[in-house]
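To: structure subgroup
Subject: Chain for Friday's discussion

All,

I'm putting the inputs and outputs inline so they're searchable in the archive.
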Amino acid sequence: MRCSFHGWLFDVSGQCLETPAEPASSPLCRNIKQPAYPVVEKSGVLWAYMGPGEAPAFPAFDCFVAPDAYTFAFKGLWECNWLQTLEVGIDPAHASYLHQFFEDEDRSKAYGKQFRDASTDSDMPMTQVMREHGRPTIEVEPVDYGLRILTTRDLGNGKTHVRVTNQIFPHAISIPLSQEMMLTQWHVPIDDENCYWYTVFTSFGKPVDKAQMRSQRLEVYELPDYRSKKNRSNDYGFDPHEQEHKTYTGMGEDINVHDQWAVEGQGRIQDRTREHLGSSDKAISAYRRLLKKSIEQVKQGERPLLAVGPEEAALLRGPLTIDGISANDKMATYAADTDHRRREGAQWSVQAAE
């Protein structure tokens, strides 16, 4: 990398190699070194390790091992602290309200859209499930990569809606998008009051239609800042007629806009002394305990969760993400069985989560 001011040249380790404006015999560059961080490209995203020592290895998650044709990456800017943006992604109950659609979309038009497909093993649209069943049962299980969140909704007639989502420590989520696609999303601070979300969509079926995915997102996000066209300045596109007849929020059909309003509306940094956590917030409570525990581990010189070497990372697969409808008598194994079926039919070699 060469500096545009005086032409100084630096290598990838930050060592200065040339100071062309100095005398030819000058030893100045030998003593000049800038901070430098190792960078790796995976799934269309550049990853930099900015901590001490060796960089942790990448887990063998689906989003990292899938061929390029089966992944698509995008990002967006939210103007608030990263932690509150992460927490909305591990709150299963809000989908029945914040993301409620009064009518269900034709499945043929659902490609690339959250909650617009039908749940696996059914013809029931996800939007119908969320709209009609607003009191989910939520269970949270600690796992090697963070937390697994099992959300069930009793549909009656011996059927239960099963949705498995994940918190990947420290700042990511992994959730189902549709029957053939899932997404993994990282919430990365720019500073205390702004952050980017980075999402990698991964398909187990056909290769991702990247042109369509990009076109959909550019309807809402403007380059080069990836700022939403719907934001604080225009009330997130709020339309009272739409709110009365079409959606719960009246803010359009893009799920990210709904979430953006919810997290930015809490303030740049949420005042958690004024919140009232309920039983549906158990995943958020579990994550906060995990985060505080990990902070103490780092203070004591211990490795936090997911700071692993290559051998351990190779064993971290999946994670399992499912949105489907099960017969009640098959509930115990439904998620694992459905995940196994999807992986058997995948168009690329994919190993099941342990």
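Points worth raising on Friday:
The first strand starts at residue 9 and ends at 10.
The chain has a mean pLDDT of 95.

D.
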